[in-house]
Amino acid sequence: MEQALVWAWDGRPWPDFPARDDVWNDGPNWRFGHWLNGRSGLIELRDVLQDLCAKAGVSIETQHLNGLIEGYSLDRVSSFAAAIAPLSTAFDFHIREAESGLVALSFASGLTQALHAETALQGSLTKSQALLDKSPSGLSLSYISSDFSYQPAVTSHLPNARDGQLLVHTSLPLVLSEGQARIIAKRTFEHLLDLNSCSVSFSPFHGSALETGDAVMFQDQAWTIERLEDEGLQRQVTLGGPRSARAPSVLNVPDAGVQATIAALSELILIDGPLPADATGPGLLAAVAGAPWGGAAPIEVGPSPASLRRRAVAEAPAGVGRLLSNLPAGSFAHWSQVDELHLYMPNATLSSVDPETVVAGENRLLVQNADGWEVIGWQQADLIGQEEWRLSGLLRGQSGSPLRMAETGALVILLTADLVSIPMASEEVGIELNWRAGESELQAFTFRGRASLPWRVGHLKAEPRSGGVHVSWTDRGPEFKNNWMVEDPVAASQFDVRTVRSGIETQHPAQSEAHFSVAAGSADQIRVAKIGADQRRGEWVSIPLSSP
After folding, report:
1. DSSP state of 96
2. Is the four-CA dihedral 431, 435, 441, 445 of positive or negative sign?
3. DSSP letters of 424-478?
4. Exposed/middle/buried for 210, CB within 10 Å: 0-12, 13-18, 19+?
5. Comparing C-alpha atoms, which of 434, 154, 431, 390 is closest to residue 270?
6. Are 143 and 137 in contact (CB under 8 A)?
């Protein structure tokens, strides 16, 4: 043979497929399909049983059995019954005698018939139950590991592990994966708890087709016939069990196992910018990300690496991405149908919403620029590649954030509840502190309290009038609610107004009104900034002047 091609070999990795049914929903079909994955190097259960019977000098029917074995060890001379006992335990089958000889049947192959209690001879039903005070608390199973070069291994099923003296120990000379061993240990333990039996007598013609080993229904439970005795005009049936209904144990989908915990090196991004509306004082936002996410990450801060103290906890990873193209400086507080955000955002699902929803505060993200972080809202989100998005219908410069150009590669962070709001003391403004989130690298960061800076004024305009120019603007800030039913603040704001003529700037007394008059020819330009309660200035806004 010059060439051989493998057919029905699935490209998905074994045993993730078929074990990971959270990823691939066709995993359960593996038991019934013709995939080669997980079957190469295996031998059929019926062939092993036929071989053992041949060595014992008996014949057996095995056409009712299905199953694959990776390895089976017999290290000593034993009886035929002792040799097949491990196989019967693992694959849940039994052997009964028939006219043609021995027959191997699976307990899950179906019930032969039902025994009706009303047809039993009166007073013949007796039941026995295993003593509850001697019930085992768990089971330990020794086996040959297929995961670790066929070395001896042990697994345990300990649902009620309280007393080590009640732990049952058993072993199987079978090659098993850890997942298969756990399944068998659990099933064997459950069978130990079901060591109940009952005896009932019928007329000699009732159930004449029954044989020892048959599975029957009696009083709405599945039982196994352990013994049949004909005594005169009655047939006594001894039932063992009851056996819980279970799927065939052959070709079980492998257990997914315990996922390895990989400690992710968390990425900590500190955002000295706009804060949530419910913030009551100075603070910053922290975005913590990591792939894979290693769980809740404590955020520590201190003046030195040796004095770090927990300040907050990040319970979930933040949505962190990067720009894939430049974002130009756009128009402040206007819908932009020209600007688009082209970004890479892994492990996130972005959605499209109507304009009213964006204005109400949904669909927000932060884009880093040279002067801080700009808050941008978006209407339309389009997935254009693997984890690549195009956002359009942008609302720029929200929450008083600086509207600037952002270059390719700039950080983009989704403004969601996964960001951690960290209050800061006024004494910490301007102080360099050391920060760390989980196992992230230590970083130095100086908090400037940008969130408490006054917002830039809006709608700055200059109107020529007789004898000069009248300049006006609109006061803005978080104190002005986006709701007509809420009154504006009573306290007057203060504004720093400066005029520029031939490159020389002149500062004027602080203004409490949102307008200012400039004499004709006295200035070429005017600059306005709002003054905060701490006397810090907000972003400067300027406009050229022209005389009438």
Report:
1. E
2. negative
3. --GGGTT-EEEEEETTPPPEEEE---GGGSPPPPEEEEEEEETTEEEEEEE--ST
4. middle
5. 434
6. no
Q: What is 147-163 written as a DSSP string?
A: TTTT-EEEEEE-TT-S-
Tokens of 323: 């720009």
How confident is the model over 453-509, as pLDDT tens digits?
899 998 899 998 888 899 999 998 888 776 666 676 767 899 999 999 999 999 999
Q: Report whether 439 contacts 265 (CB < 8 A).
A: yes
Residues 6+ apart with CB under 8 A from 217: 111, 113, 114, 115, 223
What residue type is assigned to position 296 of the chain? A
Burial class (CB within 10 angstroms; exposed 0-12, middle 13-18, buried 19+) of 322: middle
Nearest CA to 344 out of 390, 395, 393 is that of 390
pLDDT value at residue 242: 59
Using CA atoms, how far residue 424 sits from 24, 96, 234, 522, 537, in Å, is: 46, 78, 89, 44, 20
Main-chain dihedrals φ then ψ at residue 114, nearest 5 degrees:
-110, 140
Q: How far apart are CA 302 and CA 244, in angstroms?
A: 60
pLDDT band at residue 107 under the 50/70/90 scheme: low
Tell me the two tokens of residue 470. Answer: 């009248």
- Tell the residue number behind the tokens 């720029």, with chain if given: 396
Q: Which residues contact 68 (CB under 8 A, 6 or more apart)?
A: 39, 42, 43, 44, 45, 250, 251
d(CA 121, CA 491): 97
Query: Is the Cβ–Cβ distance between 225 and 212 less than 8 Å?
Result: yes
Q: At what angle do helices 80-91 and 178-193 cross, to 10 degrees?
A: 100
Number of residues that make up the chain: 548
Beta bridge partners of 302: 434
User: Tokens for 395?
Assistant: 């609302």
Looking up tokens 């996130």 gives 348
Strand 196-202 relative to strand 167-176, pairing:
unpaired
- The amino acid that residue 367 corresponds to is V
Q: Give the tokens for residue 508.
A: 């004027």
Residue 233 CB: number of other CB atoms within 10 A? Answer: 10
Query: Given a cut of 60, is residue 260 above it in pLDDT?
Result: no
Q: What is the DSSP letter of 240?
A: E
Q: Determine the Cα–Cα distance for residues 268 and 416; give it in Å rounded to an integer.
A: 16
What digits encode the pLDDT tens for the residues 356-397?
Answer: 999 888 999 999 999 899 999 999 999 999 999 999 999 998
pLDDT digits (tens, 9 = 90+) for 319-331: 999 999 999 987 7
pTM, 2 dp: 0.54
Is the distance from CB of 424 to CB of 283 less than 8 angstroms? Answer: yes
Average pLDDT of every residue of the chain:
83
